Amino acid sequence: LIAGGIIDLINRLYFLVAFAIFFCNVNNAYPQTFEEESDFINYLFSLKEYEEASFFAESLSKKYTGVGRMDSINFFLGKAGYEMKNVENSVRSFLKVSSNSSFYAQSQFFAGFQLAYLGKLDTAETVFDHLATSDSLIKATQAIELAGVSLLKREFDSFEQYSAEFDGTFYQLKASEDGLKRYSQDLNNFKAKSPFLAGLFSTVIPGTGKMYAGKLGQGIGNLLVTGLFALETLESYRKDGPGSARFIIFGSIFSIFYIGNIYGSVYSIKIRRDEFNEKINNAILVDMHLPLRLLFR
Amino acid sequence: LTCIFLFGCYFARGQFAQPDSLFLAREYRSAAVGYEWVIHNEKLTGVRRNLYLAKKAECYFLLSDYEKTLSTLERADFFEEEGPQLLEKLYAQYMIAAYLSGKSNAAYRKLLQAKTIYGSAVPYEIAKLEPFILIDLEMYDEINPALERLPAENVDSIELKSMLAVVGVEKLKEPRKAIFLSYIAPGVGMFYTGNYGKGILSAGIQGIAGAYGLYGVLTGYFFTAAIPGVGLFYTFYVGGARYAGQLAEKRNEVLKNKWKASIASHLLGRGSTNLHQ
Q1: Residues B113, B95: contact at Cβ < 8 Å?
Q2: Alpha-carbon distances, residue B62 vs A86, A165, B27, B65, B86 (angstroms)
Q3: Tens digit of pLDDT for each residue in B53-102?
């Protein structure tokens, strides 16, 4: 009887130990609630493990179907894509976040900015424009983003309209407001140079077209090289006459350099314009990006 | 019944304790996230945190993502006194990952840290990595002393020494010497780097250009012969010397890459920590 009692006690103890092991292991498993899962994704973001955050969020998208949770998941996917510079996927996920979500404004801003970065300016404008909000800081940010898109599209009237809302109230936006106004002035003050004049200058004096385009060093270099070939051609002409092989060779080299220099001068005007536009577009995008990084860190 | 129930519980454990199961199923990305979850959820500290970080790092190592292996191990506590064997593995894993991700400086810093902690008794698993790091950092003079410090009777160290024998520092060429030789006699610097064809071509071009320049001076063709001849000679003389230096560097780079590839394949086979078994 005593032995049976002991065996029974041991069995009960087994059960207790087994239950303890079972629940401990359940507790060790992946998170069970959506809040825990969201918290874990945010923790991965804090570690800058964006690929893992995206991977985990992707697995959650197969697990949940509710609108609220899907909004959060899409926001996480968008954010991970943005951090990994996977722009297309990021925009797609951000745009799936519904207007009821607390992540809506942030998602729209980041989607719109990335669309602007991709050069899809009309879509970016629509995204920013549709963002309905009563929050004054969000409204001021919206004005900056719309003003930035207007500048990228070189629509100065629209820019004037949006920049009229710049009042410097929010310190987070002040630098961007000032920057965009400055770029607008730079764009207006930029004097487009004439490719015809550049070509003409180089025709008269080789290299001067490049100097006119703002490439002083290249212009001097071209002047010296073409000048040397001109002297060589002249020497061949004087010493050996126009029918000599020497004159034909050096004359041909001179002609190639001379004509190439004219073409290069014309083309350098286009290069100058493209460089200016690229520089200013990058600066505009930086000033569109800055408020988003400050507001939604 | 007890046995059946316990089996059920342990079976359930197999299902729920996912990271190790995922690792064994070679689902390394999922396993890495799983290990991170355990670190986060259980707020692990000390030796257990180190263990899970090492397990996670191994997932990345097996995915050939050495940058992430390194960034994961950087979160470990290398001064943790408990679990000395794990610490050894962490040091070795860190140094291998740093080496393979092209950060031999970081590997060397970790080696110096290990030397500070272990003193003269640096574990073999760590010490044997020193020659490889020294090769990558081009600290050739220190390779032999490092090899001599390794235990002679260890089979692995014999293998290591024979593998390192392929590294022939004497085969490297000095770029400055190649440049100097080219200035003394055109083309000779290229011969020194083993590029005989290029040396002959360079000397030939310089000879013709120089002769053309001289012809221009003698015949009075200053613009069409003297200036182009001298100009071409000067360009090929200076350019040829520089090119000889570049050829020496290129040759050295090829040799070093060959050594590195041989070392990397050796280390890849040694990077596993066997923590999951």
Answers
A1: no
A2: 24, 55, 10, 7, 18
A3: 999 999 999 999 999 999 999 999 998 878 788 999 999 999 999 999 98
**HSE (side-chain half, CA atoms, 13 Å) at A190:** 17
* Minimum Cα–Cα distance from A250: chain B residue: B224
The answer to whether B215 contacts chain A (CB < 8 Å) is no
Q: Token digits for A146?
A: 């719309």
Place of tokens 């040759």: B251
Residues in B closer than 8 angstroms to A19, CB to CB, are: 9
What is the C-alpha separation between B24 and A166, in angstroms, rounded? 59
What pLDDT is attached to residue A16? 56
* Three-class DSSP labels, B74-103: CCCCCCCCCCHHHHHHHHHHHHHHHHHCCC
On average, the pLDDT of chain A sits at 89
Distances B205 to A246, B77, B226, B235 between C-alpha atoms, Å: 20, 62, 15, 11
Q: How confident is the model at residue B271 (pLDDT cuts 50, 70, 90)?
A: low
pLDDT score, position B16: 41
pLDDT number for residue B7: 47
A108: nearest Cα among A147, A139, A152: A139
For B16, name the nearest residue in chain A, comparing CA atoms only: A29
Outline where chain A has alpha helix (H): 2-28, 34-46, 50-61, 67-83, 87-95, 104-117, 121-129, 136-152, 156-163, 171-189, 195-204, 208-212, 216-240, 245-295
Q: Using N-to-C axis directions, what is the helix angle for B84-100 and B104-118, rounded to 10°?
A: 160
CA angle, B250 as apex, B246 and B254 as ends, to 5°?
175
Whether ipTM exceeds 0.90: no
- Supply A285's token pair: 């995008």
N-term to C-term CA, chain A: 70
How close B195 gets to chain A, by Cα (Å)? 33
- Kindly give, in sequence order, each residue whose CB lies less than 8 Å from that of residue A239, ignoring residues fewer than 6 positions away: A246, B220, B221
Q: Which chain A positions have a beta carbon within 8 Å of B16's beta carbon?
A: 25-26, 28-29
C-alpha–C-alpha distance, residues A196 and A193, integer Å? 9
Q: pTM of the prediction?
A: 0.76
* Record: contact A25-B12, CB cut-off 8 A: yes
A190-228 b/e with 16+ CB inside 10 Å = b?
eeebebeebbbbbeeebbbbbbbbebeebbeebbeebeb
Q: Can you tell me the distance from the alpha carbon of B202 to that of B192, in angstroms, rounded to the nearest whole number?
A: 13
Q: How far apart are CA A154 and CA A140, in angstroms?
A: 21
> Which residues in chain A have Cβ-Cβ distances shorter than 8 Å to B18?
29-30
